[in-house]
Design a protein that fits this description.
Layout lengths: L3 H10 L8 E6 L5 E2 L7 H4 L22 E7 L2 E6 L4 E5 L5 E5 L9 E7 L4 E5 L6 E5 L2 H11 L9 H8 L6 H6 L9 H11 L12 H20 L40 E5 L2 E5 L20
Helix pairs in contact: 1-7, 4-7, 6-7
The chain binds a DNA duplex (16 and 16 nucleotides) through helix 2 and helix 6.
Length: about 300
DNA sequence: CCTTAATCCTGGAAGC
DNA sequence: TGCTTCCAGGATTAAG
């Protein structure tokens, strides 16, 4: 669920763990650990993979005994680097959360991993739907390999030329391309719709059909939308919370996401919605015309 | 290449 | 009130 702004907000609010030593780890659900045998985690479990056959996970792999040195984010993934060289990469999926408690707070449902730190604080990975998971790496260079092999450039700093390079290679609708983490890392359903609105681009325009000027506008809109969302500590729709338990404030500023059937704040047209890239997609028919031919597609049935 | 459907799982909201 | 159905911020694979 969390997209880049939410993960970045979590990274910032979890920063007090830097410099702390992990005195104890509790793995309450072994199958949230994504192993090389099960490289795709939740999705491969979806094919009927057997969690019971997961190999044993040693506490050291989850940083037991190590000192936390750095928190790094790329796209929607958060990496916890330790002075032992070991790394834990956290992917939150749809419903994943990180909680940092300063005392021994009660364990809530769906807590899968707990790290007890040497100052008495408690870091928890909580994920009701379990679409998320963690990977354990032995060395930092494996992190660089993982991220360069599976993720495109980070969306928060995306430049027009890099975006143009990535988009020119695919003829999918722009919305599909933006959701593909190998094209651009960090954008999900909310911020894809928001950035497309800010760029005045129809979500079904083809990625490799955008002019250089349109791509430049889009790159600027992505950076600006994400930066603004980070400033507002992310969007909370239902259960997103940062590591200290606070909701994000950005949802009230959404221009299109979640506003199907309501008036566009810019031109007062009624916002449209339809399935694009298998996701509910909202746009303004006035501000985001589908330049080619006429408007073929519309589905203003909201609610 | 690209699209669609299906899958993992829980819980909140809406419908009847 | 209670039961059922739909929907959700993600990511992946198989099949067409």
């Amino acid at each position: 669920m969390p997209e880049l702004p939410e993960v970045e907000t979590i990274r910032r609010t979890v920063a007090p763990v830097i410099g702390r030593r992990v005195s104890r780890v509790r793995l309450l659900r072994r199958d949230v650990v994504i192993t090389p045998d099960d490289p795709f985690g939740g999705a491969s479990r979806a094919r009927g993979g057997r969690p019971s056959r997961q190999r044993r996970v040693r506490d050291e792999e989850l940083l037991a005994g190590a000192r936390i040195a750095e928190l790094r984010r790329h796209g929607k993934q958060l990496a916890v680097l330790s002075d032992s060289g070991r790394v834990v990469v956290i992917q939150l999926g749809m419903s994943g959360r990180i909680a940092l408690h300063d005392s021994r707070a009660a364990r809530e449902a769906h807590t899968h991993i707990e790290w007890l730190l040497d100052d008495g604080s408690l870091l928890r990975f909580i994920d009701p739907r379990r679409f998320g998971g963690v990977r354990t790496l032995e060395r930092v260079d494996e992190l660089n390999e993982l991220w360069t092999a599976t993720l495109g450039p980070d969306a928060l700093g995306i430049r027009a030329d890099a975006l143009h390079r990535a988009l020119s290679r695919t003829s999918r609708p722009i919305k599909n391309a933006l959701l593909d983490q190998r094209v651009l890392a960090g954008v999900g359903n909310i911020y894809a719709d928001e950035a497309l609105f800010a760029s005045r681009l129809h979500p079904e325009r083809l990625a490799n059909d955008l002019s250089p000027g349109e791509v430049k506008t889009l790159a600027i809109a992505i950076r600006k939308t994400l930066r603004l969302a980070v400033e507002h500590r992310g969007s909370t729709l239902r259960d997103y919370r940062d590591a200290s338990g606070s909701p994000g404030e950005f949802a009230s500023r959404h221009a299109v996401y979640g506003r199907s059937g309501q008036a566009c704040r810019s031109c007062e047209s009624v916002l449209c919605s339809a399935r694009v890239a298998q996701r509910t997609t909202v746009w303004c028919p006035g501000c985001q015309p589908h330049s080619s031919t006429r408007n073929t597609h519309r589905d203003a049935s909201d609610r």
